[in-house]
Amino acid sequence: MDARWTERNAHLEPTGFLDADHPRVIAFAHEVAGSLGGARDQAVALYYAVRDGIRYDSKRIDLRPIAMRASSVLARGRGFCVSKAVVLAAGARVLGIPSRLGFADVRNHLSTDAMRRAMRTDLFVFHGYAELELEGRWVKATPAFNRTLCERFNVDPLEFDGRGDSLLQQSDRSGRGYMEYVRDRGPFDDLPLEVIRTAFAEHYPALMSGALYEVEGGEEWET
Q1: How far apart, in whole angstroms, are the C-alpha atoms of residue 137 and residue 131?
Q2: Of 24, 31, 205, 223, which has the maximum CB count within 10 A?
Q3: Domains of the chain (ranges plus CATH)?
Q4: Per residue in 202-216, pLDDT tens?
């Protein structure tokens, strides 16, 4: 079997988290971009639908496997960088666009005081984004922060044209330092949830105690 075909197929198949065979994910992808002609136009449309249509929410992070599925994130209508990347990658697979997940550790120089107190650091480990294969090359797409949140923090919304990498900005509109990439964690064909949970437990023990992690409906849960 041709290795290239096998690799491409692995980037198109539904997985436990990129559940591109779920009716909710299929409907989302086709409603947003199914009528568009080319893969690049479809990818761009999906990107903006995830960026602005799913509200960024880092206060209620649910790391249970069922909650991290693309279909579950769509049902909630909110998520953080990793879960929003899962939706974008799953939607791309619905439309036949090869996708995978990418991760990096980033330092947020504009992190709020409340977030710094909760996390006890400004380092965000396993920041997530999607990687899409378009026009023969892999491009990074980061749909994490919706437009209204960017306006609040005086940061230009992150754009995506399907040709160049869409990565977090180094500075805000005033020139102050914003995001700094400090470690590349590499690409994954599916969400490495247990690896992420282990990293979170190491770097954010207070958060992983359960006090700031809630399930849908507002109940606290313990990892």
Answers
A1: 10
A2: 24
A3: 3-209 (3.10.620.30)
A4: 988 877 765 444 433
